Amino acid sequence: MAARVLEQLGMRLHPEKSGITCLTRGGQGFDFLGFHHRKMESWKWRGNLQRWPSARAMWVLRDKIRAATARSKTERSVSAVVADLNPVLRGWAAYFRNGNSGRKFNAVDGYVHERLATFASRKHRLRGRNWTTRFTYGWITRLGVYRLTGNVHTVTAHASR
């Protein structure tokens, strides 16, 4: 039926990009505009549709972080790398902050911490994988790295009740 309506408007459905998804309990959900949407049960609301960054959106962000902290960039100062990363993190957080993105934001913060710590270790020729004791969250804070954690604005479908 949707295909017929779109055909009258001069458009058509792309078979690989469109489909019917089951959103009942245990359903797989769907990705749309960088978000993964899934119907979730909670103690308060039945059948609430929740959204968080899709796997592809996470991969794209990780690729950008990996490129900024690459081994070939060790001639740059850590503060210069942070200055390049902050606008990317700020923009990504602004886009994905509406929804249920808290866990994904925590994962990104941990990944940024790890990449910057290993970058600084390589830059200063420090050996070993003990970057967590060398480069603490205090170090990340002093660098001025934009933190995604705490920037989520949870939107519920039942807010008007």
Could you describe the 3D structure shown?
The protein is built from six helices and three strands, in the order αβββααααα. It is 45% helix and 9% strand. Helix 2 runs parallel beside helix 4. The protein is mainly α. The model has no long low-confidence stretch (mean pLDDT 84). Strand 2 and strand 3 form a beta hairpin. A three-stranded antiparallel beta sheet has the order 1-2-3. It is elongated and about 65 Å long.
What does this entry show, briefly?
The protein has helices at residues 2-8, 55-68, 78-96, 102-123, 131-134, 137-143; strands at 30-32, 35-40, 48-53.
Quick one: how many beta strands? Answer: 3
Order of helices and strands: HEEEHHHHH
Number of helices: 6
Category by helix and strand content: mainly alpha
Poorly predicted ranges (pLDDT <50, ≥5 residues)?
A: none
User: How large is the radius of gyration?
Assistant: 20 Å
Spatial strand sequence of the major β-sheet: 1-2-3
Shape: elongated
List the helices and strands and how they pair.
Layout: H1 2-8, E1 30-32, E2 35-40, E3 48-53, H2 55-68, H3 78-96, H4 102-123, H5 131-134, H6 137-143
Antiparallel strand pairs: 1-2, 2-3
